[in-house]
């Protein structure tokens, strides 16, 4: 494994963002774990701009101290790289808990929504607007508590008691308030609108519309009171619908404010104790949604593979032995990450680290539902995976180190990119799917279809208890 600075080594890649990967950094002595956001200023020159750069993001984020906001530790710059060090949220992404077209139990949706509102209320009290709230930017800690992340689009809208209207159009289209698309807008109602869309997604497992404006017919129907012709609203009970309807008001001045939300009976009612812990929403259609930034509405996720032609599966060979991999020893003082001079480039033997510390790669990874073990080796698994995809609708790129990158277009005609990484664990092959760009719900829909097609090679038997816990494959 690569040692980043003395005493700290790289763990696995946790995810991808607008300008680079997010990696786990682990201290070998103390066991501290930190998420490190890496921004390559050569690959992403627009990250240098003051409005989008890491300096502004860090300046805003370091102001925050709240149990439902990812903690900011610090930042360092080196050559053409920027590093931001953040709290590690081992529970994974909130969108991973949403079952497409179903949602999640109402009590659970209410729990996460309450935590989201608590975080947003704190931000607004600080005079900060997030401007890109969506399930992909909401993480979970080891106790399943929600953590707001990604302050790349955040801005200060109120200072010294003076509030300014915002003009920059940013966010992810299905979650963006209608006024953001058309004119200067007030920050607080726009963030509250996004919270309302998130709640619908949690309860119904789908987005209500592509965008809150023309030419979207679902939104036009909402404005005309014809919403019951569309599936999201059919899934909500009367109390939940009444609540959401007051949040998703077209006019920002008439929209529920934070206090209105907190005083509503649906918000105050304890759904878990009211016997709704097993409540399932049912039926039906679409989250890492296209992020909009100014007029091109296109701030992309960090890693952006180009469309490539599908590879010939007969020639696939994956060199898993020589692949740069995971580090299994542990994250001493976080200050070392910020103050150390040059990151080291020495490579250590990962399997040796693993055995010494008694842990496995995926025990250091975030929880994720989109994984499974297979009976086949890496080469055969990659071939089966590629062959399971419709060549007309998917483009695949297979690297020698065992990463399959799949590029397609979702039902909303937005680009969707995900990766499948094969990892040898305990003598078995684990296939780990990770979203790179696009809608989280669409990604999970595709994963379910792929998993069904590979059913004959997926292991059904038990795995060791530590690995089962780490990979969400408990029987």
From TrEMBL:
It is found in: Nucleus. This is non-specific serine/threonine protein kinase. Residues 277-301 are annotated as: Disordered. It comes from Aphidius gifuensis (Parasitoid wasp). It catalyses: L-threonyl-[protein] + ATP = O-phospho-L-threonyl-[protein] + ADP + H(+); L-seryl-[protein] + ATP = O-phospho-L-seryl-[protein] + ADP + H(+). ATP binds at residue 37. Belongs to the protein kinase superfamily. CAMK Ser/Thr protein kinase family. NIM1 subfamily. It comes from the Eukaryota. Its EC number is 2.7.11.1. One of its GO terms (biological process) is mitotic G2 DNA damage checkpoint signaling. The keyword Transferase applies. One of its GO terms (cellular component) is nucleus. Residues 8-267 form the Protein kinase domain. GO terms for molecular function: ATP binding; protein serine/threonine kinase activity. Keywords: ATP-binding, Cell cycle, DNA damage, Kinase, Nucleotide-binding, Nucleus, Serine/threonine-protein kinase, Transferase. It holds the Pfam family Pkinase.
């Amino acid at each position: 494994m690569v040692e980043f600075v003395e005493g700290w080594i790289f763990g696995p890649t946790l995810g991808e963002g607008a300008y680079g990967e997010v990696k786990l950094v682990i201290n070998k002595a103390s066991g501290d774990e930190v998420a490190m956001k890496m921004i390559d200023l050569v690959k992403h020159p627009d990250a240098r701009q003051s409005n989008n750069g890491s300096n502004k993001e860090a300046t805003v984020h370091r102001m925050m101290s709240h149990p439902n906001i990812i903690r900011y530790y610090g930042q360092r710059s080196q050559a053409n790289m920027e590093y931001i060090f953040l709290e590690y949220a081992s529970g994974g992404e909130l969108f991973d808990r949403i079952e497409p077209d179903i949602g999640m139990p109402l009590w659970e949706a209410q729990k996460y929504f309450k935590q989201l509102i608590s975080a947003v209320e704190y931000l607004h009290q600080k005079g900060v607007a997030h401007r890109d709230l969506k399930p992909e930017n909401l993480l979970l800690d080891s106790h399943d508590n929600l953590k707001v992340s990604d302050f790349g689009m955040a801005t200060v809208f109120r200072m010294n008691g003076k509030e300014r209207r915002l003009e920059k159009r940013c966010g992810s289209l299905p979650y963006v308030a209608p006024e953001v698309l058309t004119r200067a807008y007030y920050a607080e109602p726009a963030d509250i609108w996004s919270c309302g869309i998130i709640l619908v997604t949690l309860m119904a497992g789908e987005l209500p519309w592509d965008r809150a404006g023309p030419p979207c017919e679902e939104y036009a129907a909402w404005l005309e009171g014809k919403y019951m012709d569309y599936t999201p609203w059919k899934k909500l009970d009367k109390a939940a619908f009444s609540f959401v309807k007051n949040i998703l008001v077209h006019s920002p001045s008439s929209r529920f404010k934070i206090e209105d939300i907190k005083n509503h009976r649906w918000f105050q009612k304890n759904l878990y104790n009211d016997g709704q812990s097993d409540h399932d929403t049912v039926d039906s259609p679409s989250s890492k949604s296209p992020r909009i930034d100014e007029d091109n509405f296109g701030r992309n996720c960090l890693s952006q593979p180009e469309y490539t032609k599908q590879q010939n599966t007969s020639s696939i060979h994956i060199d898993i032995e020589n692949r740069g991999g995971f580090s299994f020893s542990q994250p001493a003082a976080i200050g070392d990450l910020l103050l150390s001079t040059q990151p080291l480039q020495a490579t250590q033997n990962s399997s040796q680290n693993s055995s010494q510390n008694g842990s496995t790669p995926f025990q250091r990874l975030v929880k994720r539902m989109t994984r499974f073990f297979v009976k086949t080796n890496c080469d055969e698994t990659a071939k089966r995976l590629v062959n399971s995809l419709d060549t007309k609708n998917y483009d695949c790129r297979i690297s020698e180190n065992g990463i399959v990158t799949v590029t397609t277009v979702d039902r909303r005609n937005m680009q969707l990119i995900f990766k499948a990484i094969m990892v040898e664990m305990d003598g078995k092959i684990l296939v780990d799917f990770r979203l790179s760009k696009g809608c989280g719900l669409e990604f999970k829909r595709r994963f379910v279809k792929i998993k069904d097609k590979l059913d004959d090679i997926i292991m059904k038997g038990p795995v060791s208890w530590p690995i089962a816990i780490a990979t969400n494959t408990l029987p």
